[in-house]
Amino acid sequence: LHSDVDKGDGSIKYILSGEGASSIFIIDENTGDIHATKRLDREEQAYYTLRAQALDRLTNKPVEPESEFVIKIQDINDNEPKFLDGPYTAGVPEMSPVGLD
């Protein structure tokens, strides 16, 4: 996150609010860099809606309108298949039609 008003002199601070702000997601108030504090699982929550704002550090007044954004969690195959009663044996005759059980 970065404001065009930010000249890099420390006069701007960035704040984050919304789902998981300050617990799951943190923002560096000086740079606007946002980080996740833990590994996220799409099966627990598919997305988070956050709001960010750049404030004048001296007056605490916004220098730009608040921005809302959505962080969408991508799924990875973290649940490997398990075959409890294996081993299994199967065969498919050569030249079998597609899609038959």
From TrEMBL:
**Organism's domain of life?**
Eukaryota
Localization? Membrane
Record bears the keyword Repeat: yes
Q: Which InterPro entries match?
A: Cadherin, Cadherin-like_dom, Cadherin-like_sf, Cadherin_CS
Protein keywords: Calcium, Membrane, Repeat
**Any one GO molecular-function label of the UniProt entry:** beta-catenin binding
- Main localization, broad class: membrane
Please give the residue ranges the record annotates as the region Disordered: 82-101
Q: Where is the Cadherin domain?
A: 3-83
Any GO BP: cell migration
Q: Which GO terms describe its cellular component?
A: adherens junction; catenin complex
What protein name does the entry list? Cadherin domain-containing protein
Source species, please? Bambusicola thoracicus
The lineage, from the top, is:
Eukaryota, Metazoa, Chordata, Craniata, Vertebrata
